[in-house]
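Please review this pair:
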Amino acid sequence: MPGSMPRSNLSGSAIAVDRLVALARAAEGDRRVLEPVTIVIGENQPIPSAAEAIDCPLSFGVLQDSRFPADWPARSLWETCADVELLRSRVARELQWPTTDGGDRWLPLVVTAKGPLYAEAIARDLDTGSFVQPHHLSDRDRQTAYRLAFELLSLLKLPPGVYLVQWGQDAAGQTQFDRLYPFPAAPAIASLAVQTPDLFECHLRGLLSQPLREVAIL
């Protein structure tokens, strides 16, 4: 699935929604199995109520939307991730990781039924303000970020899908946890036309229980 949309237009959750919808339509076109029927939602999209729909929100705002089902299976996890301060405290207490509110890097954690995959790190280009993937990490920093992501996976028992681990480093280079997004948030836009499958396709595959064996930079 080529990422042909101009990078300058790729901003906000609406684009992410459009991307997922396009993937679903393409999957139907090439006869890949898409069961149940995929209905993708975001901040400005209608909340599906059909029994055959899957819920794929792209914003924490759905937690305050009265139309969104109270018994949504992922609600507890999303509420945990949305309460940033509480999650930081828990990570510091239970996992012994230092924390920060100034994380400037994102590690995509792709959770599959077979185990986790780690995509290339993402950072923001200070000159353009856009997100860039891959962001170079030393072997030490990469392995440390992987360990943090795996410990979050174990602690929160993350179901299949894409998660963005936001983290930073102190002056001594020590990794510090900031927050966890349980969906492909805005930094994931950097993966379009750069990573295969991109992070939005990875997320959709996870929600549909489709196999995913690897992710790679093009």
